[in-house]
Design a protein that fits this description.
Layout lengths: L3 E3 L19 H8 L13 E3 L2 E3 L6 E5 L6 E6 L3 H18 L4 H17 L1 H12 L3 H18 L2 H4 L3 E6 L2 E9 L2 E5 L7 H12 L3 E5 L6 H12 L7 E3 L4 H9 L3 E7 L2 H13 L3 E5 L4 E5 L5 H13 L9 E7 L6 H9 L19 H16 L3 E4 L18 E4 L6 H4 L6 E7 L2 H10 L2 E2 L1 E5 L3 H10 L4 E4 L15 E2 L2 E2 L6 H7 L1 E9 L19
Parallel strand pairs: 8-9, 8-11, 9-10, 11-12, 13-14, 13-19, 14-17, 16-17, 19-20
Antiparallel strand pairs: 1-3, 2-3, 4-5, 6-7, 7-23, 12-22, 15-16, 18-21
The structure holds nicotinamide-adenine-dinucleotide.
Length: 538
Amino acid sequence: MSSVLRLTRQGATRYPTVARRSPVSQAHLLRSLSTTAPANEPPKTPLYINGEFIQSRTKDWIEVHNPATQEVVALVPQATPDELQEASRSAAHAFKTWRKTSVLSRQRMMFDYQALIRDHMDELARSIVTEQGKTFVDAKGDVLRGLQVVEAATSIPDLTMGQRLEVAKDMDTYSIREPLGVVAGICPFNFPAMIPLWMFPLAIACGNTTLIKPSERDPGATMILARLAAEAGIPAGVLNVVHGSVNTVNFLCDDPAVRAISFVGSDHAGKYIYDRGSANGKRVQANLGAKNHGVIMPDADRNHTLNQLAGAAFGAAGQRCMALSTAVFVGDSREWQTDLVERARALKVGQGFDADTDVGPVISPQALERIHGLIQSGVDEGAELLLDGRQVSIQGYERGNFLGPTILTKVRPEMRCYQEEIFGPVLVCLEVKTLDEALELINANRYGNGTAIFTRSGATARKFQQEVDAGQVGINVPIPVPLPMFSFTGSRGSFLGDLNFYGRSGVSFYTNIKTITSLWRAEDADHTTASVNMPTMH
Ligand code: NAD
């Protein structure tokens, strides 16, 4: 028998009022579900299926480690095939009623949901620091950037409004946006709250039901978000959380009930999911890896530029898909690199709950080892190590996956440290003579996620914005992640699919357009003669 915590009990069609429940802490929730583990053992993360937090019957558990200590803080199940089927059936069943919910009810729930997330910001951030390692302030930013998508989803009546035109006398053509059905989301480890929130709130607001798979490395924030969704009155089956790794992903790619897949993560997994999901006839949007270049023009504001560059390269330990991991110094600005080293050296490395910490640990010992290898490859291939963070050790946290800010200069495009995404607090610096050379370099890179230019010249900025091939462009803004009234875009190797995440494009991804042409001629009420001619709409 599975152990079940029943949080949602209202019928699927009754949700005009929101029953607020008393908050349950995540640790308490997880412990209350853990039937096999004694109190001193790590809690087992439940599945969330049909409004119930269910302990998996699997024998295959994945450990979640605190990256600052290696302590096992939770266990995540590889959900069994039966459990995955149950989640899919729950979503398919809930869709029958959820799709008929009035748009105002869905809007109302998004209002309640955003308020609950705001109220539980600290709890969410604590879970993120514990499982992912980023600093507490940065973890709150992670929640906030996701919360903004929920806030934008409160505009769902406007966002899904159709079009209508009288195309001939008494004949109307109108288009309406309809939900797809069951949609799935597959998330990476680096934004445990923001990225699930890029996916399911908008999908649900559009009238879909969802199967969300958080990263098996930090599922805690998604579980809190699921609990808050239940508190906001989102009915049973509309949001389901399934866990696991490749087996769960394969299920989501193959399940005939799943109509669309949103994926954010690495190239390898993303291409695989895009190919497998598309081959099964599903709509897929996949945000992949990145190598974001920051171009430093000699006329830029030196102080502003160097501060922005250091923050954007080393913040979140470089584990942001929009981290500025590559600096391109144009002309005389190459001399600023010494100052950059001083700023980077001043950043404090430590565990995320320490209020002074600027740079937390990377996600795993394997990630740390890979990053060390890439730094060494740069040195071996002739780059110069201006700042080496590899020897850093944090008192009391000696087992943590820490790496201090590291700067490699004199990097050339053929080097491995330039070719591969490093995803750690490592900045590679290249030098070019002109803006045209910088553009050529960036546009030849296989990724096209984000980029930024630092300059005091509007003309230079305009030329850069026009000629650079990247999804997000910052002008004196280092991490130009668009607010959710826009969409998060991507070019070349950083994105697969046609419709981007959130904003109007996100709404298009989660809906189908149906176009109806109707003729209601008053005089026909008395006429019974059929016309065999092709309607010409005149
Ligand atoms: P990842 O690809 O390892 O994992 C992402 C998801 O895919 C997880 O849920 C995981 O279970 C699943 N997965 C992993 N390997 C798989 C496989 N072989 N087959 C099927 N499924 C698999 O990514 P990650 O390490 O968690 O996240 C970091 C990556 O995500 C970086 O490359 C980063 O650039 C990228 N990212 C991109 C964006 C963006 O918007 N472009 C945003 C955030 C992160």
